[in-house]
Amino acid sequence: MERDGVERLLTEAGADSRRLRHALALVCDGQWWTLADLVRETATSRRTVEALLRELRLEHDGERFRVPLTDTPAYQDLIAVAPPPRTRWPTSCPTTAPPSTA
């Protein structure tokens, strides 16, 4: 389990770290993944996913892998994603149009 390496990858990824965090969340969810499925599900490059996987201690079942459930708590704070950006538009719109000035 190389938490420092995972943190470094996330920092270096910048804005793309959301995809890496998604990949990390998936391999920590207890399900088995293949590299192809993880790349497809996260829309992340194969090389980026491989770099993440090199930093993790993984259980293997043939071509499938996952982070051992005993290790997942160490990554929970890294999986958290920043809140979405605020919108400039109001969240509610008036139900009636303003009066016309014609």
Structure, explained:
This protein has five helices and two strands; from the N terminus they run ααααββα. The N and C termini lie far apart (69 Å). Helix 1 packs antiparallel against helix 2. It is mainly α. It has a two-stranded antiparallel sheet. It has helices at 3-13, 17-27, 35-42, 46-54, 76-79, and strands at 59-61, 64-66. Helix content is 42%, strand content 6%. The chain is globular and about 70 Å long. The longest helix has 11 residues, at 3-13.
Draw up the topology in text.
Elements: H1 3-13, H2 17-27, H3 35-42, H4 46-54, E1 59-61, E2 64-66, H5 76-79
Antiparallel strand pairs: 1-2
Helix pairs in contact: 1-2, 2-3
CA-CA gap between termini: 69 Å
Enumerate the strands of the largest sheet in spatial order, edge to edge or round the barrel.
Answer: 1-2
- Kindly state the percentage of residues in helix: 40-55%
Total beta strands: 2
- In round numbers, the mean pLDDT is 83
Instruction: Indicate the low-confidence ranges by residue numbers.
Output: none
Largest sheet: 2 strands, antiparallel
Radius of gyration: 20 Å
Shape: globular
* Beta-strand percent range: 5-15%
Structural class: mainly alpha
Order of secondary-structure elements: HHHHEEH
Please report the number of helical segments.
5
Fill in the keyword field for this structure.
102 residues, mainly alpha, two-stranded antiparallel sheet, globular
